[in-house]
Amino acid sequence: DRISAMSVSRSSALDTVGYLPLYSLSLSGIVLNPNTNQLLCAYPYDAGTAERQCRPLGVSRRCIPGCTPDYDAWGCHAGCQKRSMWCNNARGWPCTWPPDHLHEALEVRERIAAARGHTWELDVEHSFVGEGERYYNELVFEFEYFHRHLPGSIDAVFYITNGCTDRRPQPWMPGTEVAKCEDYARWAHARLHARWPMLAHAIPLVRLDPWNWNEPFSV
Predict the structure, then answer these.
(1) N or C: which terminal CB in the chain sees fewer CB atoms within 10 Å?
(2) pLDDT tier at 76 (50, 70, 90 boundaries)?
(3) Quick one: pLDDT band at residue 79, thresholds 50, 70, 90?
């Protein structure tokens, strides 16, 4: 009921590792069209939003998937002080930044990267902030809105030619780990064109070079 993504720009060039602050340096993915997707909330770090489940699934008046803290699941019961789910520049975990404060979340991410992962200004565990000094952010988009506007909600399909070692568990295939890299990107791109032959022609398959800050995409 949600899509986790990230925002990367040349202004993010504060990391000491030299490459773009990405979730993975081998997995393929998509570039979201900012005009045909609906942002639900944002974090300046990886917030582990898979644990923020709504019951029932989807956006409602009581719950926003990937955004609303699940206090009960985290052991916050009677007598626990449940803070507002929305952050400001001086607050952190478990709150999140609303769409109209996206710029604040991105600014906090820049401060975290400049401080090399120190989070004394935020109430957040260091393990959420970065992996190997890759201080990437996390943006949560509504899946139904994305799905309803396909294929226009996708700007491009990308792959990274950096080996294919980032294997991830597949929830629908217990005990199975799969690395979805270049071959998967080519398959997904072909499926888009097969499903929407007239509309998907504007969606390119591109190579992403994480070390090229000026022109990271190439056809």
Answers:
(1) C
(2) low
(3) very low
DSSP state of 11: G
Q: Which residues contact 100 (CB under 8 A, 6 or more apart)?
A: none
Q: Is 173 exposed, middle or buried (0-12, 13-18, 19+ CB in 10 A)?
A: exposed
Could you give the CA distance from residue 23 to residue 2 in angstroms, rounded to a whole number?
A: 17
CA distance 193 to 182: 17
CA dihedral 134, 109, 16, 7 (to 10 degrees): 60
pTM flag (> 0.90): no
Per-residue DSSP letters for 67-111? TS--TTTTT--TT-----SB--TT--TT-BB-GGGHHHHHHHHHH
Rounded Cα–Cα distance for residues 27 and 182 (Å): 8
Strand bridging mode 217-218 / 205-208? antiparallel
Across 62-82, average pLDDT: 66
Residue type, 142: E
